[in-house]
Amino acid sequence: MNAEERQSRILALARHHGRVEVTTTAVGLAVAPETIRRDLGVLERRGLIRRTYGGAYPVEGAGFETGLPERETLHVKDKRRIASEAVKLLGDAETVFVDEGYTPQLLASLLPDHRPLTVVTASLSTAAAIVDSPQVTVLLLGGRVRARTLATVGSWACAMLERFVIDLAFLGSNGISRELGLTTPDPVVADVKAKALAVSRRRVFMGHHSKFGASSFCRFAGVDDFEAIVTDTGLSSAEAHRYSLMGPRVHRV
């Protein structure tokens, strides 16, 4: 197996499992750990993976995106903590946009049910999870449903958002970096996110630390568009401070 074939195999493993470890991958491919580290360096420079201590995560882009079933099994404990912290930022908001994705779905399930609240979402899963809450009015955006994420996209969804003024938007992304802002693989998804951001008075970003430093195909927001960023402690305090210098408060949980 030459270097190119080995790197393709490593990338396939990362995309299938959501992560690769240097030591186990070295054993599986019968090479030295140093070889795997060099391969990961090549893949990171190509923008295909994001290296972490002892391994790497795949970067989502135009050619690769995880679906909702995968997102529901990766980093679940971290995502629950992020959602629990983010919901504390609700304040007195009466209208809320909840983005597609598993972490926003977790947040929606934590929204208070003791006062009236209107939730706007493109996510079928989120709408189904909270529609029985007696004090919550759910507005589901129309449009084409993406099978990968069970969320609506397209001109209908954007046209509906255009008519709203929303108090608070909880948004996610496939990548966030200080240089390139927030990105996602699909242009139609980026359109919905950008429109939700534009019609919302307050914006909160929620994302696992593996999203940081990564970039995808379509930019829809800048870091300074958000009042707060909520992530886990996998993001170092030094890096969190760098993001905070751009405007948002950074919550690490």
UniProtKB/TrEMBL annotation:
HTH deoR-type domain mapped to chain residues: 3-58
Alphabetized GO MF terms: DNA binding
Keyword field: DNA-binding, Repressor, Transcription, Transcription regulation
Described function: Repressor of the lactose catabolism operon. Galactose-6-phosphate is the inducer.
InterPro entries named among the record's database cross-references: Carb_Metab_HTH_regulators, DeoR-like_C, DeoR_HTH, NagB/RpiA_transferase-like, WH_DNA-bd_sf
The protein's name: Lactose phosphotransferase system repressor
Species this protein is from: Streptomyces doebereineriae
